[in-house]
Amino acid sequence: MVYGNFMRVVRVLIAGVVLVSAAAPRPASAQPADRVFEGLTRPSRDVDLVMRVSGVLARLPVKSGQAVRQGDVIAELKSELERQSLEIARLRSESDHEIIIAEKTRKLRETELSQLKELAAREAASKWEVETTGVQVEIEQARAETARFNKRLAEADHHREQLLLAERTLVAPFDGVILRTMKEEGEGVADLEPIAVLVRLDPIWVECNLPADLFGRVHVGGVAGVRIVAADPAVDGSGEDPAAAAEVSRDGTIIAADPLVDAASNTFRVIFEVSNPDGAFAAGLVVRVRLNE
């Protein structure tokens, strides 16, 4: 009897230990944790601005570090001759003198033909005179058509001269910042020679190499759990950033992910796009990418 009671007590104690072990919380290390990776910021656009024609640089109203808006003038070539050619083309395109003269002459010949036909009906004019005047009417009609055609050519030439003049002015193709200029006013510029470099920093891109175990788990368009935090020397390998609270952080959107893993590094490249309206992130800045798994 005593032995039986003893065994029942042992069973109860063992069951209690099992229940307590099952109810105990998992260690913090077992909880899903953020992973932090190093990335590098770069402009979302980086363009060499070039002239499509050659010439002498007359104006360069921008300098390195200057913010510009789309359509702002970046550079102008000397264009006195082109402006004069444009003015000549404009005057020709607006002139109707040839058309007016041709139309008046045609109407005059038509009147003569009508009168000759009346005279010929009374046998007061010869058939030859009627036919000759009829040919002259046709000639004047052709001259009027030629004058109208020349008018259209002059208008097209005027438009062409406008385009040629516009080619001598370089404008910003998008909002951005002038990274650097390569020319000075008064210097010669060759065809397609870079004059300045324009970069877009809003949005800014963050390029990051992620480990291969994340391949297939991050996708273009994904935004959940991605944080961009400016790097700090105090960041250690544990993924904790003591200065994170003091640093600027932004959500990022995945816009590109390489379809291949680099065998040498066992990583694949991912690009995050980050809104940067206040310019908090400069290009070339080492940052930390905090990614929730």
How would you portray this structure in words?
This protein is of the alpha+beta class. The protein has 2 domains: 30-70 and 178-291, Beta Barrel (Elongation Factor Tu (Ef-tu), domain 3), CATH 2.40.30.170; 79-167. The protein is 35% helix and 29% strand. The chain has helices spanning 2-23, 80-94, 97-121, 127-166; strands at 35-50, 55-59, 67-68, 73-77, 169-171, 176-181, 188-189, 194-211, 226-230, 249-257, 267-274, 286-291. Helix 2 packs antiparallel against helix 4 and helix 3 (97-121) packs antiparallel against helix 4 (127-166). The relative contact order is 0.20.
Count of domain modules: 2
Distance between the termini: 58 Å
Arrangement of strands in the largest sheet: 1-8-11-10-9-12
Which sheet architecture does the biggest sheet show? Answer: 6 strands, antiparallel, barrel
The averaged pLDDT comes out at 81
Task: Give a brief outline of the structure.
It contains 4 helices and 12 strands; from the N terminus they run αββββαααββββββββ.
Describe this protein with a few key phrases:
293 residues, alpha+beta, Elongation Factor Tu (Ef-tu), domain 3, 2 domains, six-stranded antiparallel barrel, four-stranded antiparallel sheet, 4 helices, 35% helix, elongated, disordered N terminus
Topology:
Layout: H1 2-23, E1 35-50, E2 55-59, E3 67-68, E4 73-77, H2 80-94, H3 97-121, H4 127-166, E5 169-171, E6 176-181, E7 188-189, E8 194-211, E9 226-230, E10 249-257, E11 267-274, E12 286-291
Antiparallel strand pairs: 1-8, 1-12, 2-4, 2-7, 3-6, 4-5, 6-8, 8-11, 9-10, 9-12, 10-11
